[in-house]
Write a structure and sequence with these properties.
The structure holds two protein chains of two kinds. Chain A is an alpha+beta fold. Helices cover 37% and strands 12% of the residues of chain A. By secondary structure, chain B is α/β, with parallel strands linked by helices. Chain B folds into two domains: 49 residues, no CATH class; 362 residues, Alkaline Phosphatase, subunit A, CATH 3.40.720. Classes of the chains: A alpha+beta, B alpha/beta.
Chain lengths: 989, 493
């Protein structure tokens, strides 16, 4: 019994392999308490049962949960053991299942030994001693020795170069590289590995390989996601990531720039561009969605991404309540939320225009910036102090609607009385344009200020035929209006397609909270100018309202006059850097707008439009200079980034996490259980980044080195890369994690140095096969008793095939491309022409609702949310892709041709070369024999059906090399295909 | 102690298995501890055990159900866009009587509306232009647009009190498919595949069929994604194309003979490699290539409808001859169900009738009414309905008031508070009506049926306690029903 008990304990809790000796709280006890008890007896006071908490010793002792030293009389143990359903723990209704005999034994021993607690291992500050006289090999060897194991012998040089090439560049080594390395290795193994690693780390493809994992974390995609999932251009950020890894940007900067580059003093374009990281979450524009609901979701996504990526904590659990397992309160959640929401953004992106949501930066190179500076200087020079005069409505009037008489549904423009009908010359001649306004729906004429006026239903517009002003053009509008009641929101007039569906692109006069608001808008709220009267407008009385704009693209160029007097206003927005035209609906409409609140019951009379700012003289030269500048600005591409608002938005605890259930107000804060916020650091994203990268932060470095380890070994030292909390897995080698983390900090967060140390370690260089027992006992390779071995990730699977066939096109960066498989995607897209289908997988266009199907089949995540650990599965569907996918069939036939051509048809040579290309090693006699049989069988087959051989060479864009004879080329293609499907080709060994 | 570890392997695994039978099944043990040599032996044991199947059947993480399962599989006919309950199942003569009058504020009760009609100055009620009659033992009402569905009234349970929190399509559909409004969680079918595995090793356990060429609100492959569950549990889209499954067919120029010869040699290479370096991964790879080869036969067999007798084809209606129609997909669904596919998800889009409802709804019903009813009858006739659940429904209903101006060509906006769906087979109370709405068809007055409860109940019929099919991810145990879900006994036989 003892043996079975011990052994089964060992198997179930491999992670807490309990060497005999004192029970350790963090290693042995916390996992049990956390999983089975904390849900009801943990940090969350709202869910706490019987007012008992077991996550703190004093509280537990005080509540008499246990008596230290006396397990048998401890209530906790009694309650676990009792058969009485009312008293039994955990209760059946929790569905957590009973504790195992081994778990109970541990708890008993722990109580008997005094029931000591330890701070959660991941929250303990790193100590500089962690690196003293230590090394990866020493730590692991010592751990293995305790288990009676030792490190495996070093892998063969052929295996090593293949492993290192994939791990550091994501590409296989060429046969020449293999041969050269093997030769050098014979003479001096140690230095040959140093040379190889140095070479690979200097390769531009190192950055590409490292970027892939970060793109998962950053939930990078080339589309907005959610339902509509329109594509967007964020690839300049992806290219920045590749560059940052290649430049070996210190990791603390890598993190700081992405979180808060915009807040750095004299922030560079590159630092601001990096902040796009925070904007890569999914975004919505489905018609009828509630803007605030999605804004809150966006910020919730930022919180989740930041806390998964940098803290390895499941902050998202605290959105609705205090964390059940970890010391994170709901206030902590909204404290981080408050720092991540201070940008001028909308919760919906525009359906009617393609503009990226605000805030956004213009992507300009140095010459473009210089050019713009010159244009700006010219405008500044021409801008003289303005003399403002009372409105003069006598000149440059473009239209005047008196709304006195309705003909059909037409309302005449008094300035352009309809000309007498002229005989039509031919069908094409439509006559002069109709300059009347059109009254729609149930709007009606009622007695007004001057004759009749329009009374609006709120659901129907009056459309005028003019008003498509550009932002360099001064213009003004004058009208009489009367509102029947105090309105929170009503559209008086506008030139725009819609409200949120077009991000209000255009210009508009609204009543908002009882005040008049006059705005010119590129993308609301971040790119607009807008002013609002300080006073509410009077109700049920006629007002003469004049609104003017001077063509400056600035808020001080907007004015509102009420009954002839310049109204005192607040500046609501003052940042218009892009066009106000576009989006459709190019004319002024009154009283109604798509999916907005109309001017219900409101009256408008005597509506006049002027082609000038009626309070000042137009300067033609200035207007021309502005036109040039604005046109140039309009042509620049933009990227969504972070741009801190000068005044932070208010943050509240949201009850149950719901956007419309605001509770108490909260300010920026970080969890009390972690290191203190740095003194003097600003309480914003920058301060947060400083907090994260301070050497005393317990999580940032640990989480980062763990993820790097995972990317090389297929499994983190902490398996739950995303959860370093109480429910996460405790590392088997905590000293190793701390060693690496401390070294990383001490090196100045030098990623390449860290990677180099890992991949040159004896642990990494081991053979990936161990004896059968070790393999069976530790399939996950948690003990590190062998080298890493796992099926290549999706990107490498495809890149490997392309590289092996010599098809790969290794251009760095640029817009995403469509691989062959996109024709088979859920939303099919025609694959790219020519050699764009041979770009690295990193550059494959990633549309969230229709990602490349083969990539997904090989476990690439959909990038809907932050993922720091990929699942790895194997399925027959993957085999079908490798056997029949266009990319792979083409690669096999091109490689087949190449093998035949180079070996001049000599079969043993072909086989050897095929092995070197696909497996980075030479075949043995048996393999040569099998491959010979394969080739000859296929050759015989294709001789019998030559048509099939021809057909096989039609797959893919690559041209057939006619110098290779048929059907030999076809047989060679099938040989290549077999090798490309070989375990050693697709599994990193 | 360490020496004792040397004894680990097959013996211990078996020992453990007895000890912990309730915790884990053998398969999951194998998965957890990898397929070392001992593991492989056991794997073979399992394979032989599995009732002569061609390959080892994956019994999922649960190994066996939590309780007796009335249903073994689901066919889910998803009507994307939000069919109008008021024009199909929920007869409200009051709306006709008060056609054009404003919906009383007391009925709306401050409920949030979508941004599409939320800013309308007026929200007039609009009656259904379609005739309603009662059918079946429960006297449920059916619109004249659903004559065939009315004909199976005694085989189905119509729930009129479904409700959700979503007012938009994206989150609405995602909620039904994954139990969460925000995309990223595993789909219902993925949970079943994960929990119960496959009945047929040669077919995917979760398949998706979408009516071809429909417009309307877009769908996305995240709807059948596996979220944080291993990707082998994601839905496999069966397309109405030459290759029903991605790259199923051999490429041009590769015949089955040539492929078989190549695979035989590849197998030899792998076996040779395994002899040199015994790693279970290699053995797995061999298995997967063999299974892929079998799928090349088994999938075309199931997707080829040519062996269906004429009277069966006729029962699904004339569209059945056109691949990719809802009718053809319904018949396909029956064939997949026969072969033991666990979760068969159909989508039919274009029910989003914001305008032009009187013209559009009859068209949609014509496309779906007969095939859906024929599917139920066909399953019943084969004895398959007893253990197959059929579900028909959309992501929400539609408003009692009209969107925009009232006219003969009116439309209705999204309505989450109540809508109708029907269920059949697999332990469902046949010939019943569940739940009740007010006279405006706006609020539920009896037996509200939330999405979480819907998931809970379907899982219950499948033998699963929804609180015990969990996956630990990011520190907590996730499940389809999040932290909610109660069993709705009223729809169970």
């Amino acid at each position: 019994m003892t043996r079975v008990l011990f052994v089964s304990f060992f198997v179930i809790t491999t992670s807490t392999f309990a060497a005999p000796g004192k029970v350790k709280f963090n290693r042995d006890v916390r996992p049990i308490l956390s999983d089975k008890c904390f849900f009801c007896h943990g940090p969350d006071p709202k869910k706490r049962e019987a007012d008992l908490r077991l996550d703190e010793r004093d509280a537990a002792v005080e509540a008499k949960a246990f008596v230290p030293g006396k397990a048998e009389v401890s209530e906790m143990i009694q309650r676990i053991l009792t058969a009485d359903a009312d008293d039994h723990m955990p209760p059946a209704k929790s569905k957590l299942g009973d504790l195992t005999a081994d778990e109970i034994a541990i708890l008993k021993r722990w109580i008997d030994e005094g029931a000591e607690y330890e701070a959660h291992w991941a929250f303990i500050t790193l100590k500089p001693e962690a690196t003293k006289e230590q090394s990866i090999g020493k730590i692991v060897s010592a751990g293995l020795a305790e288990r009676g194991l030792k490190l495996q012998a070093e892998a063969t040089p052929e295996t090593l170069i293949r492993r290192l090439s994939f791990d550091l560049t994501g590409l296989p080594p060429s046969p020449e590289e293999v041969t050269a390395f093997v030769t050098e290795h014979q003479f001096d193994p140690a230095s040959s590995i140093q040379h190889l690693v140095t070479r690979l780390l200097a390769s531009p493809h190192y950055g590409e390989r490292m970027a892939v994992d970060w793109l998962d974390v950053a939930r990078y995609a080339d589309s907005y996601g959610f339902q509509v999932d329109r594509e967007h251009e964020v690839w300049p950020w992806r290219d920045w990531v590749v560059k940052a890894f290649n430049d070996n940007l210190p990791y603390d900067k890598f993190v700081t720039w992405q979180l808060a580059g915009d807040l750095l003093p004299n922030a560079t374009d590159e630092q601001i561009l990096a902040t796009a990281f925070n904007r890569l979450h999914q975004q919505e524009n489905e018609g009828g969605s509630v803007e605030e609901e999605y804004r809150v979701e966006y910020i919730a996504d930022r919180v989740q991404t930041v806390s998964t990526a940098f803290l390895g904590l499941t902050f998202e659990c605290s959105r609705c309540h205090d964390h059940k397992y970890d010391p994170i309160t709901q206030k902590d959640y909204y404290g981080l939320f408050s720092m991540l929401q201070n940008i001028d953004e909308a919760g919906l992106y525009s359906f009617f225009t393609p503009s990226p949501p605000t805030p956004a930066m213009m992507l300009m190179d140095a010459p473009a910036k210089e050019k713009m500076a010159v244009m700006k200087a010219k405008v500044a020079e021409l801008e003289k102090p303005k003399t403002t005069t009372p409105p003069d409505l006598s000149r440059e009037e473009l239209a005047h609607f008196i709304f006195d008489e309705l003909k059909g549904n037409k309302l005449a423009d008094a300035l352009h009385a309809a000309p007498p009908p002229q005989p039509k010359k031919d069908a094409k001649d439509k006559g002069p344009p109709d300059l009347a306004a059109v009254l729609k729906g149930e709007n009606k004429l009622v007695p007004g200020k001057l004759g009749n006026a329009i009374q609006f239903t709120g659901d129907d517009a009056v459309d005028t035929p003019l008003g498509n002003f550009q932002r360099h053009e001064p213009f003004s509008v004058s009208l009489w209006m009367q509102t029947p009641d105090a309105k929170n929101r009503a559209v008086v007039f506008h030139r725009s397609q819609a409200w949120t569906d077009a991000a209000s692109r255009g210009y508009e006069l609204l009543i908002e909270d009882g005040k008049l608001k006059w705005s010119l808008i590129h993308f609301w709220p971040g790119n607009a100018i807008s002013i609002r009267t300080k006073e509410n407008i009077p109700l049920k009385q006629w007002l003469q309202v004049i609104v003017t704009y001077d063509g400056s693209s600035r808020a001080d160029g907007l004015k509102i006059f009420v009954d002839g007097k310049l109204a005192a206003v607040d500046v609501i927005k003052d940042n218009l850097t892009k066009t106000i035209a576009g989006g459709g609906h190019d004319n002024i409409s009154l009283g109604e707008r798509m999916r907005d609140r109309g001017f219900k019951g409101g009256l408008v009379d005597d509506f006049r439009v002027f082609g000038r700012d009626v309070t000042t003289e137009t300067d033609a030269e200035l207007q021309k200079a502005r036109a040039e500048l604005f046109t140039f600005q309009d042509a620049q591409k933009e990227l969504m980034v972070m741009k801190e608002l000068p005044q932070p938005k208010k943050a509240h605890v949201l009850t149950r996490g719901e956007y419309d259930k605001r509770g108490e107000e909260v300010g920026p804060t970080t969890p009390a259980s972690l290191s203190p916020f740095p003194k003097g650091a600003p309480k914003n994203r920058l301060g947060y980044a400083q907090w994260l990268t301070a050497p005393e932060h317990p999580l940032m470095a640990r989480v980062t080195v763990n993820r790097l380890w995972q990317n090389l070994f297929g499994r983190g030292l902490v398996k739950t890369t995303e959860d370093f909390g109480s429910q996460g897995e405790r590392p088997l080698y905590p000293e190793l994690l701390d060693y690496l983390a401390m070294k990383f900090i001490q090196s100045g967060w030098d990623v390449k140095t860290l990677v180099k140390e890992i991949v040159t370690s004896q642990v990494y260089r081991q053979n990936s096969f161990a004896d059968a027992k070790t393999m069976t006992d530790d399939p996950d390779n948690q003990w590190l008793a062998r080298g890493p071995r796992f099926r290549l990730p999706a990107e490498m699977i495809r890149d490997n095939a392309l590289a092996t066939a010599g098809l790969i096109k290794l251009t760095l960066g640029g817009p995403p491309v469509h691989a062959y498989e996109m024709s088979e995607a859920f939303k099919p897209v025609t694959p790219g022409a020519g050699d764009t289908v041979y770009r690295r997988s990193l550059y494959s266009n990633w549309r969230r609702t229709s990602p490349p199907p083969a990539m997904v089949a090989f476990d690439a995540p959909r990038r809907a949310v932050c993922i720091s650990r990929r699942e790895r599965t194997d399925s027959p569907l993957q085999a079908l892709i490798l056997l029949n996918g266009v990319q792979y069939v083409e690669a096999a036939r091109v490689l087949g041709e190449k093998l035949h051509l180079e070996a001049k048809g000599d079969l043993p040579k072909m086989i050897e070369s095929g092995f070197m290309r696909c497996l980075s090693r030479k075949p043995d006699a048996k393999e040569t024999q099998i491959c010979t049989q394969l080739y000859q069988e296929q050759l015989a087959h294709f001789k019998a059906v030559p048509k099939e051989a021809e057909e096989l060479f039609k797959t893919g864009n690559a041209k057939r090399d006619v110098s290779v004879p048929m059907p030999e080329a076809a047989a060679a293609a099938v040989l290549a295909q077999a090798l490309m499907n070989h375990d050693a080709c697709v599994v990193k060994r | 102690m360490v020496e004792e570890n040397a004894l680990l392997g097959l013996t211990l695994n078996l020992e453990l298995e007895t000890v912990n039978a309730s915790l884990m099944n053998r398969r999951s043990l194998l998965n957890r501890f990898g397929l070392g040599l001992g593991g492989i032996a056991l794997n073979e044991l399992l394979a032989k055990e599995s009732l002569g199947a061609a390959a080892a059947v994956d019994r999922g993480i649960l190994g066996s159900t939590h309780h007796f399962a009335k249903a073994k599989r689901i066919i889910y006919l998803f009507m994307s866009g939000g069919p109008s309950h008021l024009d199909l199942f929920d007869y409200k003569p009051l709306l006709n009587q008060r056609n054009g009058e404003q919906l009383p504020d007391s009925v709306r009760g401050g409920q949030r509306l979508t941004g599409m009609s939320g800013n309308q100055s007026s929200i007039p009620m609009v009656g259904s232009p379609f005739k309603f009659t009662q059918h079946g033992q429960a006297g449920g009402w059916f619109s004249e647009l659903l004559p065939h569905t009315a004909g199976i009234a005694d085989d189905i349970c119509v729930a009129r009190s479904m409700f959700t929190e979503s007012i938009n399509h994206g989150p609405g559909v995602t909620f039904f498919q994954t139990g969460s409004q925000i995309a990223g969680r595993p789909s219902f079918g993925s949970w079943l595949s994960y929990g119960l595995g496959a009945e047929n090793a040669n077919l995917p356990s979760f398949t998706v069929l979408i009516t071809k060429g429909k417009g309307g609100q877009p769908l996305g492959s995240h709807l059948w994604g596996s979220g944080f569950l291993p990707t082998k549990h994601q839905g496999v889209l069966f397309r109405a194309a030459k290759d029903p499954v991605l790259y199923l067919g051999n490429p041009a120029g590769v015949s089955a003979d040539s492929r078989r010869l190549m695979l035989d040699r590849l197998k030899e290479l792998h076996e040779h490699q395994f002899a040199e370096t015994p790693d279970a991964e290699i053995q797995n790879r061999i298995d997967h290539y063999e299974m892929a080869f079998r799928m090349q036969t088994s999938i075309p067999e199931v997707t080829d409808l040519s062996d269906e007798p004429q009277h069966v084809l006729d029962s699904y209606g004339p569209d059945v001859k056109t691949p990719g129609t809802f009718a053809a997909n319904c018949l396909q669904a029956r064939r997949l169900a026969e072969k033991g596919v666990r979760f068969i998800q159909l989508y039919h889009q274009d029910w989003d009738h914001h305008g032009g409802l009187p013209g559009a709804l009859p068209k949609l019903c014509k496309e779906t009414d007969q095939p859906a009813a024929a599917l139920v009858k066909d399953l019943k006739q084969r004895g398959l309905l007893d253990d197959t659940l059929v579900v028909w429904g959309g992501e929400f209903g539609r408003t009692a008031y009209c969107q925009g101006k009232i006219s003969t060509n009116f439309g209705r906006d999204h309505h989450p508070r109540c809508f109708s769906a029907w269920f059949a087979g697999g332990g469902i109370k046949a010939g019943s009506v569940y739940g009740e709405t007010d006279d405006f068809g706006y609020n539920t007055v009896k037996d509200g049926l939330h999405i979480h409860d819907f998931h809970t109940t379907l899982m219950h019929l499948l033998g699963i306690d929804h609180e015990r099919l969990t996956y630990k991810f990011q520190g907590r145990r996730y499940r389809l029903t999040d932290v909610h879900g109660k069993l709705v006994k009223g729809i169970i036989a």
